[in-house]
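Example 319, ligand 4-methylsulfanyl-2-ureido-butyric acid.
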Amino acid sequence: MPRVLTAAAAQLGPIQRAEPRGLAVARMVRLMERAHARGVQLVVFPELALTTFFPRHYHDDRAEADHWFEAAMPSPDTAPLFEAAKRYGIGFHLGYAELTQEGRHFNTAILVSPGGDLLLKYRKVHLPGHAEFDPARQVQHLEKRYFDVGDLGFPVIAAPMGALPGVNMGLMICNDRRWPEAWRELGLQSAELVMLGYNTPSTNQNAAGFEAHHLRVFHSHLSVQAGAYQNACFAVATAKAGVEDGCELFGHSIIVNPQGEILAQATSWDDELITADLDLDQCTLGRTTIFNFEKHRRPEAYARITGQVGAVAPRRWQP
Ligand code: CDT
């Protein structure tokens, strides 16, 4: 019996600074309606899907940024998402800014069952950008100011989804996709499907020189395709897209198979649903052959991966 899950990336067009959460949620519920009409069983929304990508906005007093965060999930604003999931029998992935009862701040993603149960939570580990206002930048990227580093590792859960009794599902968020360590953490837990949301500007504010638009998209796709291939899993990577608060986000959401091939790709900078049927048994080929971890990995040779952070200079060759 084939293990097929019909999944969707629900790309969101821009959410402007003044747009209330209720409007964003209404847009997401419409995407869920469309997903239901197409027989989708799991919908993946982007990173920080409820608001504008607020880390571009500087608040001198960090507490002033708290209004971007959710202190409860679900909340009156987000309840319609959970109701739609139940109504349509669809699981969903949601990225949002989480404020805990202890006053900690995280860039968080959750996986919710069609019944509204919380299946999995992940808090972003790789926080890009900077903590202080940077006058050299046209657009700030203050994730290091507003978020704590995630404290949940890279979790994977085997849970029912669609008609399947157990799908191995893992989460990462945006910048994590560029780090092979994040993928391998999920691969080592036999993830069959990796979900991630992203908000990525079309231009690199850090680049001293020019980095072409097509390279920005290329590097994003390269990372997701390589991560899926090298860990023999499917990936759904969902963007926020378009011009948000005057800053362009490049979109190009994709669904990728364990061979690293793109099965579906968004073509707009708007709310857009792309779907694919994921035959999860396609994960078997990679994980029983070239990426059979049990047989071929050599952790004894990888000590630097966890023992060292920055790069060191190599030994100098001497004749
Ligand atoms: N949201 C996020 O992590 N975006 C980053 C861009 C960082 S630019 C400072 C990304 O890797 O796509």
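Summary: DSSP finds eight helices and 14 strands in the chain.
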